[in-house]
Amino acid sequence: MATISFKADDLLKKKLEKLAQKKGINTSAYIKLILTEKINGELIMTTENGLTVEEELNILYSDENDKVSGPFKTAKSAMQALKK
Fold it and tell me: What is the rounded distance in angstroms from the CA atom of residue 11 to the CA atom of residue 27?
């Protein structure tokens, strides 16, 4: 598991600690929970082409790393090829 560190002002840290305590978890776990929810929310948002951010990232990854090639007639057929 990777470690991420950042600086926050004292008031923010105290607020985070209080919220985490209310949930019965430590501050680190609470920050992880917040980040996970935010990232997952961003990934399911659709972009202007109708794909989700996650689908676009999968396509970009595949373009660089997989042996999937088109052309594809639809985005759906491209996504099906990526899942193989």
Answer: 14
